[in-house]
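Cross-check.
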Amino acid sequence: MHAADVLTAAMARARSIACIGLDPRPALIPPALRATALAEHGDTRAAVASAFLAFNRGLIDATCAHVAAYKPQLACYEAYGSQGLACLEATVAHARMRGVPVVADAKRNDIGSTAEHYAQAFLGQAGGLGGTPLPGLDADWLTVNGYLGSDGITPFLGTQPGHGIFVLVKTSNPSSGELQDRLLAGADAGPVAEGMARLVAGWGKGRLGACGLNDVGAVVGATYPAQARRLRELMPETVFLVPGYGAQGGSAADALSGSRADGSGVLINSSRAILGAWQGAADGAAHWQDAALAAVVAMNRDLAAARG
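Predicted model, tokenized:
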């Protein structure tokens, strides 16, 4: 299936536009999981990876019926070397086993054959020594940096059907305007983010799924709602991956600012509020899965109320 159709179907199944960021850190691991991993592996990278995987699987099992996607942040896993990457692979496999699409948040890019290797690593397959295609991470979507232009995007567009990319357009961090709000000259005068949006719309042209959205998405932060509305005008057929909701300060209404007229076209991410929900819940350390589920249900309720 087309990547946007798969994502739209997941939203319909879960009745949710929520994406949960699987960004584990040692401080977010419940005490029981931490103790088990330390007892088995000592204070090593293997212990961290073991605890992360147990945590991720528990989160996925608790919330998979209520979310549209999961988004593991690659840096959280790469920090722990090969053990961390093995944890990432197992996490993605578990989410897919549960029938939920995965966005690999890697923000990769380069030109030519290097970009092809990134596409193989996260979305496709690489050739073995004997010519056998060997699977990569097999995520459904990948975040990419479009700063290198078309040379760095085209290799991602030839991956196997059912995969898509989210290009960084207007990110949620406070300093994003240092570059993204700078003004371009010429025929397309306006902020750099709008220039990138025009490129994204062009890259996605002719790549529509049955849902009316294409497989070249855009990262558009919830913390800049006015710009999100303008960017929707420039990218009417694009799925927006929306960070910045909740802990970063974006409200539900802010996060939905980039929606299409019918309310579609947005995937809203939350990470810390879900992963750390147990820390603020009564008896949360013992019932951390319940705390995560409650946080997801609250997020869905908040977004649904804002959608009206």
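The mean pLDDT is 95. The CA atoms of residues 204 and 216 lie 5 Å apart. Passed to J.P. for a second look.
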